[in-house]
Amino acid sequence: MSCNKEIIKLMHKYLDEELSITEEKKLRSHLQSCQGCQDHFRELTRTVALLKSSSNMQPSTSFTANVMSNLPKEKKHLSYIRWFKSHSFITAAAIFFLFMLGSIFSIWDEDGQLSVSKDHNVIINDYTVIVPEGVIIDGDLVVKNGDLKIDGAVNGNVTLINGEHLMASAGNISGEIEQVNQVFEWMWYHLKRIGKSVFDLTN
Amino acid sequence: MDEKIRLKIRQVKKGDQSAFEDVVTFYQDKVYQICYRMVGNAYEAEDLAQEAFIRAYVNIHSFDDKRKFSTWLFRIATNLTIDRIRKKKPDYFLDAEVRGTDGLDMYSQLANENPLPEEELESLELQSYIQQQIMSLPTKYRSIIALRFVDERSLAEISEILNIPIGTVKTRIHRGREALRKKLRDV
């Protein structure tokens, strides 16, 4: 402490990393010759080291969460958009499913009218389709929104959608009888049909 | 890293709140340490640091993208802390010296989980002693010491953060260093 202020100023300049080469030489040569300044310089560098080393305090682990929960609320639609962006696969699947469901229901609702796949040789009486006696239908028969009465015979599968098979004399039908009355059954029937046609195509 | 933060800030500006989370995580230690250096109390430092981040978020549109984000953020934090200290009663400093044993509080908390080795206990005591010495300095020195020794900010940056001339920054660092040299000589 006994030396002049200029040397001490140089020490601080050194610690601020602002010392020129000539100034550094001056400081160095003085420190070699002066014990007092050497101690002063050592104490200063040690102080700096202590200050730097002891600054590793950390905030609580919930710091970020606390900040985030205290932020003013952002606009709602932005958070939705971001959710959709980050869950794009779920979003796509949900949209696809919605359209699927929509189209199936609309098809289901659409035809409330009775229809028969082959209307030759059959009699339509109100909501009942009758295959008269002596008539043989070659191929599959599909009846929508109506009941079916078979007095003759069908050489193939019979499918009834939203209707009943009134005459259970199964001997008249060479293939299978299938009745579809619920929307889910109907969907299942459609899926099976799609599956079948795909399968048929591959054959 | 800077580029990543820059991107996050841009997202925050567009209204994406969740992007701010990464910004907080990245800077929380530094902001907390700067506040702690100035108030000398862990609880208060945490409160101030959180407030600083919330203010940064609310005022994010006034941040100029071309400038350094940390400079802007630290400015908010130091201003907030200086304000808080100013509003305190004058007996705050006495109060703080007692609370300077905060390190001991923290030690006792940690001790429940696993006892600290000898050296760590010593270093905790040393840290709390150093902090006590910093607390005995006026606020204007503490803020500069916090910025200079927590994050090793350049003198020019400190002058920008605190909005004081670089010459004043230098003088205060020199005086602060000399004052602490005398106080920490016997450690």
Quick overview:
The complex is a heterodimer of chains A (203) and B (187). Chain A has 203 residues and is of the alpha/beta class. Chain A is built from seven helices and nine strands; from the N terminus they run ααααααβββββββββα.
Commentary on this structure:
Chain A is of the alpha/beta class and 203 residues long. Chain A is 52% helix and 15% strand. Chain A has 7 helices and 9 strands; from the N terminus they run ααααααβββββββββα. Chain B is mainly α and 187 residues long. Chain B is built from 10 helices and no strands. Chain B has a single domain, classed as Orthogonal Bundle (Rna Polymerase Sigma Factor, Chain: A). Chain B is globular, with a radius of gyration of 18 Å. In chain B, 78% of the residues lie in helices and 0% in strands. At the A-B interface, helix 1, helix 3, helix 4 and helix 5 of A face helix 2, helix 3, helix 7, helix 8 and helix 10 of B.
Give the name of the CATH architecture of chain B: Orthogonal Bundle
Number of strands of chain B: 0
Beta-strand content bin of chain B? under 5%
If strands are numbered along the chain, what order do they take across the biggest sheet of chain A? 1-5-8-9
Secondary-structure-derived class of chain B: mainly alpha
Q: How far do the termini of chain A sit from each other?
A: 103 Å
As for the number of domains of chain B, it is 1
Largest sheet of chain B: none
β-strand percent of chain A reads 15-25%
Main sheet attributes: strand count, strand direction, barrel closure of chain A: 4 strands, mixed
Number of helices of chain A: 7
Shape call of chain B? globular
Note the total helix count of chain B. Answer: 10
Cα-atom radius of gyration of chain A: 46 Å
Quickly give the structural class of chain A: alpha/beta
* Model regions low in confidence, pLDDT < 50 over at least 5 residues of chain A: none
Succession of helices and strands of chain B:
HHHHHHHHHH
Keywords (chain B): DNA-binding, Sigma factor, Transcription, Transcription regulation
Family (chain B): Belongs to the sigma-70 factor family. ECF subfamily.
Protein name (chain B): RNA polymerase sigma factor
GO molecular function (chain B): DNA binding; sigma factor activity
